[in-house]
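thought: fold this chain, then report.
action: predict
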Amino acid sequence: MHLAAVLRSTDADKIRRANLEATRRLADAALEAGVSRFVFASTNLVLPGDLGRPATEDDEPAPPAAWGPYPASKVEAERLLLALHRDQGLGVRIVRFAFVYGEGDPHLAESLRWAGQWPGHQRLHLLHHADAAQAVARVLQAPGIDGRTYNAADEAPVTAVELHALNGVPFPDHPAGDADLWHGIVDTTRIRRELGFRPWYPSVWSARDAGAL
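observation:
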């Protein structure tokens, strides 16, 4: 289960080394050791915008340049692993996480770095730590899914206004602006239908009410 990544960095070379080159080395080691299943944690940020609908696993990855080197490195790693699956039989399974949050994780507070610049109705798709673990376990344990990719997210994307409320910060007073209402929003039909995934925390509000933040 390959969950390691560099995310909170502005060093593009460091991100690429960790997220692509280290993945290549780990995959080579897995092949040499005869590992039968290789689960790779990716991100829904690899998916394109301007779809006018939730993104599916069949959409060609094309992260906007504005998202920086992190999703670009994940796209390259996904393609590398899928090529090793086709050419050398690596039993790769890819799970793309939405914006992960949970107990003690500063990620939810850090979301305001972007959400503070968004129009109030722009949305962010989330995934609690517990449901990220659930998704990985289901992807690992399922038979016959080598080469498959799965989106993992909760059931209730939150707006920029809601993200500020969750963090106890007033929403800044600025013009509404334009928003791609579907960018970063993913369809989770495949993981629900094929693997039986149901989020234990279907929204960040249910996680808050359960004391799981």
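thought: worth noting. The CA atoms of residues 56 and 176 lie 28 Å apart.
final: tokens above.
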